[in-house]
Every structure is written in structure tokens, then in C-alpha cells.
Amino acid sequence: MIEISNKIEVAPKLILVSGPARSGKSEVAEGLAAATGKAVIYIATAQVDPTDLEWQARITQHQQRRPDSWQTIETPLDLATILHTASPQSCLLIDSLGTWVANCLEQEETLWQETLNNLRESLTLTRADIILVSEEVGWGVIPPYPLGRKFRDRLGSVTRTVGAIANPVYLVTSGYVINLSQLGTPISQFLVQPLPPYP
């Protein structure tokens, strides 16, 4: 909990927005960030490749949507440090977890688990509002190559880890926003309840 000047304690918000490609999840996250009324810091996890013009065009499209008052920090890897040092008066918009996971793919499994644990701990301890954008990549065909499967599995683990501590969790798909926190039951609660009989 954070103690602010009027002595009222306010818990920082932790929001997850996920969805497939071109679903509008980034626009939804940007709207949520603007609505906080706080100083927004856009955390860009993408690495710029000057030879990839299509990727640069995507990044430019995101940049043009942001208000001039927003600060941008490019952080391909070290999210934990930024979360630890964030001010209670700020809202961090992290876009996206998918590109962050891609940047970490070279980490061997033990180091990756440490990185994931550090992210979770940082999210629970941060004093700022946090909005995270994550891609949904696990609904399609299993990739036929090891690196693709590794990426899909790691991103799925990250999204599930963050979703377990975020509230609300939004799914953006087919032009609609669904509040999973209102409509769904967390797995941790579902598994301790009596399960319905098998039909």
C-alpha cells in the first residue's frame, strides 16, 4: 500500500491486457494509462532493427498515438529495475511482454526462471500503477521448430504468472474487450472448489 499526502492509502493498480495480433490491445492499454491521470511512462521492450522497415513502421505507428507528455524508456531486458525504482505518482505502460520474452529467449532455463521470478516479485512490490500488454500466441498450431515452441511456452507462462496477480485482466479480441476478472474464476480458486461432475 502507498501512503500519499492526504494520508489515504491507495493500492497501486496492476492491469494486464492481452489479445492476438492487431486486436487493439495496445490502444486499450493506452486508454487505461491515460485514464489514471498520472504521469505515464511508456516502457518499450522492442529492439529496433534498422534493416527491418516493416517493424520500424509498426513502432512509428505506436509512437504517433502517444501524447507528447508521455515519457518513453526503451528497455529490452531489465524490467525489474524500472519497476523497483518507479514513483507512486507514475503509471508504467509496458508494451509488450511478448517482445520482452523474445529478447530473453537465449537465457537457459534456470536463468529464465530467475528472470521470471524477479519480474513477479517486482510487480508485487512496485509503488507505481502498472499496465502490461501481452500477446496471445498459444491458440494456434504448435510451431514446428524448437525456438517457436520455446517462445510460445515462455510467453504463456509469463502471461499466466502476471494474470494471477493482476486485477483487472482484460482480453481484447475481435473488436471487443472482455474483463476476465469479472467473468472468470482464477485457476487457484477453481481447483480448490468442488469440480462439476463429468458430463
Layout: helices, strands, pairs:
Blueprint lengths: L1 E2 L5 E2 L3 E6 L5 H11 L3 E6 L8 H13 L5 E4 L4 H7 L4 E6 L1 H7 L5 H17 L3 E7 L10 H20 L3 E5 L2 E4 H4 L3 H4 L9
Parallel strand pairs: 3-7, 3-8, 4-5, 4-6, 6-7
Antiparallel strand pairs: 1-2, 8-9
Describe this structure in words.
The protein is of the alpha/beta class and 199 residues long. It is 42% helix and 21% strand. The protein has one domain (13-182): Rossmann fold (3-Layer(aba) Sandwich). It is built from 8 helices and 9 strands. It is globular and about 55 Å long. Residues 1-9 have low confidence and may be disordered.
List keywords for this structure.
199 residues, alpha/beta, Rossmann fold, 7-stranded mixed beta sheet, two-stranded antiparallel ribbon, 9 strands, disordered N terminus
Quaternary structure type: single chain
Number of helices: 8
Counting helices, strands and paired strands, the structural category is alpha/beta
Number of strands: 9
Radius of gyration: 17 Å
Second CATH tier, the architecture: 3-Layer(aba) Sandwich
Mean pLDDT: 90
Number of domains: 1
Listing every helix as H and every strand as E from the N terminus to the C terminus, the arrangement reads EEEHEHEHEHHEHEEHH
How many angstroms does the end-to-end distance come to? 45 Å
Q: Give unreliable regions as ranges.
A: 1-9
Q: Brief description of this entry?
A:
By secondary structure, the chain is α/β, with parallel strands linked by helices. The chain has eight helices and nine strands. The chain has a single domain, classed as P-loop containing nucleotide triphosphate hydrolases (Rossmann fold, 3-Layer(aba) Sandwich).
